[in-house]
Amino acid sequence: MLHLTESDLRFLVETVATSRRDYDHLVNLIRDKEDLLEPMLEDPKLTERLFRDEEALVRISPHLLFSVLLRRLRKELETEAYILDVDIKGKRIPVFEGPAVAEMLSDKQTRDYLAEMLSSFARTNSGIISRTVFPIPDRGLGMLKSIRLTTTRIAELSRTCSVWTQYTFRRWLTLRRSLPVVPGDVGVP
Q1: What are the backbone dihedrals phi and psi of residue 34, each rounded to the nearest 5 degrees, phi first?
Q2: Pairing of strands 82-86, 92-97
Q3: Which residues are 126's β-sheet partners?
């Protein structure tokens, strides 16, 4: 069973059903109907948009991303004789037969299992950091400003924190250290 979110369904409909504009109606039609979802997930427009539109990766769940990529990989491997890998000397060697892997990826249960397993490694953590800005003297009142933090927005948070007080920055450091390390992440070690 596919585990698609509302955002996934909306993205799917917006990308594949380009001649329609009644997206909410279409989302309701395809929800929990795998016989309608499967052909939509095979549509080449979906992979094109994922590779072209950076914002797309933020809108969809990891499960949808891997479901689409595994389907594309299956199609590509149907025409490849072998899957090549590089050994320690840089020589390309055949590792798997392409059609055999494509046949394995044709099995829906195997494909769903792989998508679920791969998406489990793409987990993100989130939280909210708040601070008071423009305090009113003698009353201690001010406007509360909150920022939603996810592990995918650390660079943005780092820029924001550079103007915060030392106390707030120490709180951010404590929170940052509790989040998992993300390759390419900008932050404090």
Answers
A1: -65, -30
A2: antiparallel
A3: 150
